Amino acid sequence: MASEETERQIEHLRTRKGVKCVIVMNLQGELVTTSVNEKSLDDEAVEAYHRLAYQILSGLKASIKQYSAQENLQYTRVRLKDSEVVIVPEEKFVVAVIQDPTAA
């Protein structure tokens, strides 16, 4: 379960304009918690974003390690047709924010 501080951070992110969903997973990609801000995102859509974020993160980390063992991914942003996925790996968990790219 996420700590109180983590829950506050998630709530802060979730209330930002354009944020559809916040996903927190452990470093192995297992879902820890989600906070959905858009009614159009059902459980299946959230799970699809969760898998997508983990696959992007895994691929980038492997590529970066091939480039340099001393480098670490700070964050990445991937823009899709109808959404943007921002992935931030931390020391013990990963946060993925799904947002509307047209919201300013």
TrEMBL record:
Domain of life: Eukaryota
SUPFAM superfamilies found in the cross-reference section: Roadblock/LC7 domain
Gene: 100635560
Family designation: Belongs to the GAMAD family.
Domain Roadblock/LAMTOR2: 6-99
InterPro entries the UniProt entry points to: Roadblock/LAMTOR2_dom
Gene3D superfamilies in alphabetical order: Dynein light chain 2a, cytoplasmic (3.30.450.30)
Protein name, UniProt field: Roadblock/LAMTOR2 domain-containing protein
PANTHER family according to UniProt: DYNEIN LIGHT CHAIN ROADBLOCK
